[in-house]
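quick one, 78 residues, struct below
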Amino acid sequence: MQTKLTLQLDDKLIQQAKIYAKQHELSLSQVVADYFQHLSQETEQSVSAPITRSLIGILKSSDVDDNDYKKHLEDKYL
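---
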């Protein structure tokens, strides 16, 4: 089910959003929906400490991820 949403935003921001949507061949509604979806996914995945998240991807040639760090901490402290 889709519901209409009214937003009040700065004119300049609206124009920038319209340009972005046009460049990516999306509707403005789709851009907003995608952003809200991204926010909900980010919230669900934000269980790691900020320092850990900042280091993710720093070793491009390695398969190290969040779970490896958690395992390291478990091994070290438990």
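The two ends are 48 Å apart (CA to CA).
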